[in-house]
Amino acid sequence: MTLSNIPPPQGAQKSAVAPSPTPDPVSPEAPKAKQAEIEPRRLQKRIVPRKIRFELNMHNARRVSVVGDFNGWDTTDATLVYIGGDKWFRDLYLEPGRYEYRFVVDGKWIDPPTAKNYVPNPFGGRNAVLEV
Predict the structure, then answer these.
(1) 77 falls within a domain
(2) How many CA atoms lie within 13 A of 130 on its CB side?
(3) pLDDT digit string (tens) for 22-46?
(4) Closest by alpha carbon to 93, among 72, 78, 83?
(5) Domain with 72 in it
(6) CATH number of the structural domain spanning residue 85
(7) Nearest partner of 103 among 57, 65, 62, 59, judged by Cα
(8) pLDDT tens digits for 107-126?
């Protein structure tokens, strides 16, 4: 005997509860979907920083930094690493965009010698331009 074939106990009444009616999708009483639910969700464009290597060949330097509008022109923020001979480097992760920058070698601001583009700066010198 299966459960569906079991008779109800004696004296039990059948349920008088009727299932609740579902609203007609065309009727004005039907809940309306929000516009945001209808349109597919747009994926937000994720900005992925790119690794940019700054290199400088500087003989007899003691401290080299790269400064620019990517770090607020802070001379202590992005110190390059000495790797021997006259070679210095530093990798920074920058979001896509246009940046101006320079090097600071032992307190002296210098132009990046390998930059392809420069713009004048308000101090009478020039800043290198980097497009990421």
Answers:
(1) yes
(2) 24
(3) 555 555 565 665 655 555 566 677 8
(4) 78
(5) 50-131
(6) 2.60.40.10
(7) 65
(8) 999 999 999 999 999 999 99
Which pTM value belongs to this model?
Answer: 0.64
Q: Is residue 86 part of a domain?
A: yes
Instruction: Tell me the residue type at 114.
Output: T
Q: Tally the domains of the chain.
A: 1
Buried b (16+ CB within 10 A) or exposed e, 111-129: ebeeeeeeeeeeeeebbbb
What is the three-class DSSP state of 101?
Answer: strand
83: left (phi over 0), alpha (psi -120 to 50) or beta: alpha
φ, ψ for residue 126, nearest 5 deg: -140, 150
**DSSP 3-state assignment of 27?**
coil
Nearest to 120 by CA among 96, 132, 111, 56: 111
